[in-house]
Amino acid sequence: MPGTPPTRYAYLGPEGTFAEAALISAVAPGEGSRIPAPGVPAALAVVRSGDADAALVPLENSVEGSVPATMDGLAEGDPLLITREVFLAPSFVLAGRPGTTLSDVRSVASHPHALAQTAGRLAQLLPGVVPLPATSTAEAARQVAAGEHDAAVCAPIAAERYGLTALADDVADRSGAVTRFVLVAPPGPLPAPTGNDKTSLVAVVGDRTGALLDLLREFAVREISLTRIESRPTRERLGVYSFSLDCEGHAADARVGEALAALHRVCDELRFLGSYPRADGRENKPVTDVSTDAAFGEAAGWLERVRAGRV
Amino acid sequence: MPGTPPTRYAYLGPEGTFAEAALISAVAPGEGSRIPAPGVPAALAVVRSGDADAALVPLENSVEGSVPATMDGLAEGDPLLITREVFLAPSFVLAGRPGTTLSDVRSVASHPHALAQTAGRLAQLLPGVVPLPATSTAEAARQVAAGEHDAAVCAPIAAERYGLTALADDVADRSGAVTRFVLVAPPGPLPAPTGNDKTSLVAVVGDRTGALLDLLREFAVREISLTRIESRPTRERLGVYSFSLDCEGHAADARVGEALAALHRVCDELRFLGSYPRADGRENKPVTDVSTDAAFGEAAGWLERVRAGRV
Amino acid sequence: MPGTPPTRYAYLGPEGTFAEAALISAVAPGEGSRIPAPGVPAALAVVRSGDADAALVPLENSVEGSVPATMDGLAEGDPLLITREVFLAPSFVLAGRPGTTLSDVRSVASHPHALAQTAGRLAQLLPGVVPLPATSTAEAARQVAAGEHDAAVCAPIAAERYGLTALADDVADRSGAVTRFVLVAPPGPLPAPTGNDKTSLVAVVGDRTGALLDLLREFAVREISLTRIESRPTRERLGVYSFSLDCEGHAADARVGEALAALHRVCDELRFLGSYPRADGRENKPVTDVSTDAAFGEAAGWLERVRAGRV
Amino acid sequence: MPGTPPTRYAYLGPEGTFAEAALISAVAPGEGSRIPAPGVPAALAVVRSGDADAALVPLENSVEGSVPATMDGLAEGDPLLITREVFLAPSFVLAGRPGTTLSDVRSVASHPHALAQTAGRLAQLLPGVVPLPATSTAEAARQVAAGEHDAAVCAPIAAERYGLTALADDVADRSGAVTRFVLVAPPGPLPAPTGNDKTSLVAVVGDRTGALLDLLREFAVREISLTRIESRPTRERLGVYSFSLDCEGHAADARVGEALAALHRVCDELRFLGSYPRADGRENKPVTDVSTDAAFGEAAGWLERVRAGRV
């Protein structure tokens, strides 16, 4: 029902993943139920089917890059809208059953991405121990709790969930990594503009020199900054390019609205993926006087007078 | 009264000028009265004061370039709107009193511009005769009729008006010259779009690198071609540039209207000088599918749905 | 001979014109001879024929706009180069024979442009006196000296030349007018860059939407400001546009040189009209670090290394 | 030694990976030795250390998107150059030990990415069998050969390498996936231009509105098409944006060289990643007459004459 906050949240599971940690950071535990989904497609599918009201899925990661399953899952299929973005700095712990010490560890498991991001520290902490892959960091924690392995690289929430204790905190080789999750919902009223919003799009343009430039020009003439752009492979459709991009501002803003309408005209396809509060801790560039809603409104009034010959 | 054709036409006089010839070509003699004005400022002034309903004044000439008095007269003062453009290929005749032959001619007079455009032919036709300046080609014809000079370089209409006969036709050194006149009127309903219209503007922008490019970009993103551009000197106002320009299309067209509104926002000043049928015998560039009124309308509808979350 | 200053200067005559005044302000009287020419084409012709070493001709006027005879005279015919620009604020005097007083004046003569620029003051000073046209302001002064008229509107230099005295100084209706003259010479070494130079061009481009924008983009990407642009009528050649423009910088500057070469490639025609010191009392916009000759040089060295694989 | 083909090829191992398959497709088995590396960073490291002459690593995948380890591994650290691109359409087989039939399979293992791309088919072929993760598709094949699992999803080359037989071919849920690998080598002579080349770059620009547009404009004014662009996260460095992009053409081409030099000037940082033959089966857009090397050369000659005053 429009206006009613979603109450059934799907997330990229299983329980104990960073996605769950992100969801907890975004939605108070008491607000609604949580549904772990075995993958991004599954998480999106339960929203599309109506079995969940929203889904929290990863969109991009500062180490791993964009998450194709989410990019493509939003670009195709029934429309979904991003209503919120959530940033989480994953904090990997090396966790074992209570009583375990580092020197006891003979086997360590985790998702291959997590193993990749902690390879250096693991080599120091557990020399000679060969890391083993698991389907998720949370699954690795479960396996440790079940006694299948001695230690897991996982989120603190997974350690807690499975009754493990941390043998070492912050075992990532490179700090500063952050994952951007998005909360997606079925089409419905957009989040109200806050003055510091982002808008996400997928634009498909013909394959000609300057097509991208023309696309970007629609933003530039209206003083709208992009915060992300990525050409997406479209191997199956020769002769077209697909761009996934985020810009500053909200569809309700006059300048953004006019840009969206222009892109709708000039692109082969344009999919609107939502306008939502910016949550990366940065501020949008200030809107100059000539690009405010007031300036657009005043210009519209002027144009009306001009068209009526009242100059 | 809206819809009523102007009936009192001022023009750049005196009687017998090319401006009168252009007016005759544009408005059937029976339609309304004609008021010769001693100069462009005077012609504009009688429209502004309400003593005439419209004025026909020269805007640019393929030999002499733009006519600053008209450019500046429209850019400043109370607003006036161009409602029509009229092209006239001036045809200079060398005219004398009936009975005069070329060999009788001892003196020839005309406006200095006309003398300049016929200097070569005059030297051939009247070797040794020093041309004398007059305040207008029509005044020179009057002087010849009054016996002050033997011959005048003037418009055929002036020869006819003053009872002169042509000693030589088409005495311009360089054929192909054409003068563009505009009919200007007080603010009022714009001429209806015809599908082949022009729009005239004066835009003032700050003096920074790229200011002109930004201005032109507003046309380019909306696929609007310019047909004339001229930077106008603004010596008295350091740090600003004024551009006089004509573009294809009508203010009532969606793409032109959006461009006008954008320029209104981003320029220091923007003066709308009118939308009127193109009359230079050329066709505007075809409007591509993405820039038609229908495309703009469809995009506006799409944006409305997006803003309502009905994607 | 290259390096030798021109010694025979043609100028738009007759003697006593503002062109002569401008020439005097630019070249010390002792330096070379002066040759009055009866018109701009004649002034350019004597340089092309070798009968003069340079010519001073008006290019644009803040009241009258650009001077088509000069624009077209430089754009066509054998190449000439602008080597200097000279600005003169015309100071009109109302001059009569010694002993004449305002109340004695029954007739006043001048070039029609000068009469137009002083019409208001003349009506105040000489109520009821009808102004008479002359072929130049200097010719009017000569006629007054010869007793043909009582007063002339002319340059102070003309009054002096013909032994007239000023009945009133500064009789222009609108102060601040200024004329820009250019000194043109046959092709030869360009004036050395001064750090505050201008470059003049005529560019011909095909008639397609965006052609002008593409042209201007070549300047913008290299951070070069335009100081003047004017579309020139090309009635005789359908489908092409000609632009006359001035930009900041010297052909010897790396950024300007690269822009010129780019325009040479992309324009249908490009005529270089010269690089010369800026003399309008303004400073070019500062060249940013990324557009200096040093930056271009450093980038060229980098590219050489890249092409050699020494990255 | 310049000109000598690399002979020690590192690749993303272990043996039997798709990277090895791509390497085999690109370099005849007899040419040089092959060194499996345990990860992309390791593969790049052995080239940087001199322990290998080149490395074949994945750059982007039509299903999984760009490979951050390769993107970042090339953008940072000692320079490496891409000398070749290799496209491989991964063909997944479900492989078991000889004699195994589908109905015998109780366990199936593979790299999580491969499991994700074959989830649908596996559910059909092996209902009820829970897929198990392995560190690579090749490792899964090895484990099957060792009897640890019954089946593996792997490359045909891995099945062959470990003596397995295919239980099912082409088990990807979605056909058409393709992976783009690049062969990287230490700085050295660039591959000779072929007329159908690509150039790869990483550009870092300041975070201001229009920065990306300015960057792209350098390509557009020189008629260079982009084939890929991606903004890369730079969380650790606030206020800057990093773009990874590929364009058509070779650094040795005049238009590409001028664009590279321009980017070198205007970007905060620019890293050249190589020019190499295009291998995706597409042709670069035709170079128009105004952008050929000949046109650049002719323009350079013209500029030289202009600067010498020989117009």
TrEMBL record, chains A, B, C, D:
Stored CDD domains: ACT_CM-PDT, PBP2_Aa-PDT_like
Keywords: Amino-acid biosynthesis, Aromatic amino acid biosynthesis, Lyase, Phenylalanine biosynthesis
A matching Pfam family: PDT
Domain ACT: 200-277
Cross-referenced SUPFAM superfamilies: ACT-like (SSF55021), Periplasmic binding protein-like II (SSF53850)
Residues covered by the Prephenate dehydratase domain: 8-186
MF (Gene Ontology): prephenate dehydratase activity
GO biological process, alphabetically ordered: L-phenylalanine biosynthetic process
Residues the record marks as site: Essential for prephenate dehydratase activity: T179
Stored Gene3D superfamilies: 3.30.70.260, Periplasmic binding protein-like II (3.40.190.10)
Pathway: Amino-acid biosynthesis; L-phenylalanine biosynthesis; phenylpyruvate from prephenate: step 1/1
Domain of life according to the entry: Bacteria
Reactions mediated catalytically: prephenate + H(+) = 3-phenylpyruvate + CO2 + H2O
Designated name of the protein: Prephenate dehydratase
Organism: Geodermatophilus poikilotrophus
Taxonomic classification: Bacteria, Bacillati, Actinomycetota, Actinomycetes, Geodermatophilales
Gene: pheA
